[in-house]
Amino acid sequence: MMKRRSFVQASLAFGPLAGLLGCASTLPGKAKVVVIGGGFAGATAAKYVRILSDYQIDVVLVEPNTSFISCPTSNLVIGGSRSMADITTPYDNLSDKHGVIQARDRVKRIDTARKSVELAGGSKLAYDKLIVAPGVDFLWDSIEGLQQANAEGQILHAWKAGAETTALRRQLESMPDGGVYAISVPLMPYRCPPGPYERASQVAHYFKQAKPRSKVLILDANPKIVSKGALFSKFWADNYPGMIEFRGNHKAVAIDGKTRNVKFEGADDVRVDVLNVVPNMSAGSIAMQSGLANVNNRWCQVDFLTFESTAAKDVHIIGDAVQSAPGMPKSGHMANSHGKVVAAAVVAQLSGLEVNPNPMLTNTCYSFVNDKLVVHVASVHQYHATENTYKTVPGSGGLSPAPNELEGVYAWNWAQNIWADTLL
Amino acid sequence: MRTAFSSLALVLISVVALPAVAQQSASTLHARGLAATCANCHGTDGRTTLGSAVPSLAGMPRDYMLKQLAAFRDGSRPATVMHQLAKGLTEQQIDSVASYFATLKP
Q1: Helices marked H in A53-91 — which ranges?
Q2: What is the pTM of this model?
């Protein structure tokens, strides 16, 4: 029912409505913003362009999915304390409540010269401002055998919440007690720096209850745990003694999907029962194909005042795809923050107003170490015009003193509020 | 179908209604954009989801919010996260968000 309605809506938007929208440039003061990607960054940007323009600027959001599935808290589904329904929010409210026009489609091509986006379904959308929030895609070729093993369902990443999240949970449920689960972690930068360690904690939480003779191996390309290291290490030693083992400098180079054997650069092979590989990442493929990934052909450089691409005028890029400023994590909270700064900047530019010369961003990232206890890292990022970057404010931000239940309550409430702020 | 028509109606309304709407000032837009930074945790326009342990900010009196943020900064009000975030805001930003949320209906 919901699906059918959405398709009707999309076809209307590009059928009869297309003509109307096509006239947008002839209407004085009426501008058109197209947003590609409905994750934390893109959905927030779409909603906030509508809000901050007092619903005067029309926004088209191009997103193929009918519902948003949250990466933050998806490790709890793998650990068994939450369901997929708990972490899923429909996109309908963005249209019903905020008048965002939704195209349930993928982008085939961006023509930055003609300021037009071509959709896979064939429609073309002209824009005055394009906001690209493509998230990440995987650099499959950096680990031999990975893409095929993933396509065959043997080796999962579960790093985009969805079908792989439940599939990984099923692999853990099928594993006999006494087995070994391993997570392979890529070199930084990647989406959600503490995510692998939260996942290891969640798998251990499940093993402790259901399969107490089993082990969790973290095979990390980085030399040390990259986020909240002391907090994770202490909790593992106290609560999962002998169950979680961390091995640094383990950069995976090849895997065998059938035997679940991993080869590393300069370390011995490892063979396990459930192998979970987080692949190396780049900006989402549409950014790569459109010449927007101008940093090492991998990430997108932006003017941080407005998040406008340094590769194309009137194209703004936000979220994980951006070449990060120092200390800026690739996180859902940060992506939502990008969405607001870009929305305010785009509304200002389309309204002939000065762009806020002092934008700021915040980040709060909670990790569940079991089903109730949480540790966080928080930071505040102020814009510095002279260097056109964001810097964390000295003396601000920080970590939890220790895992605690109060933050467990706040973490779940954080999730509810940020989903609502992004989508409802 | 109803949703499709309401989308169409929204577009038409916004086109037709445009000339009658007074444009906001740059400073108002900047203040709204800045306050949106709080919404990640405290909800859009400072209104949290039902039953949230995180407090709503909409309609909070300006002086009360200024006192709380000062207390987070000097450590006199214990917190899990806000003492770390409050220390990253400038005096001007604190004044701006406190003034903005005070104007909203709870």
Answers
A1: 74-79
A2: 0.91
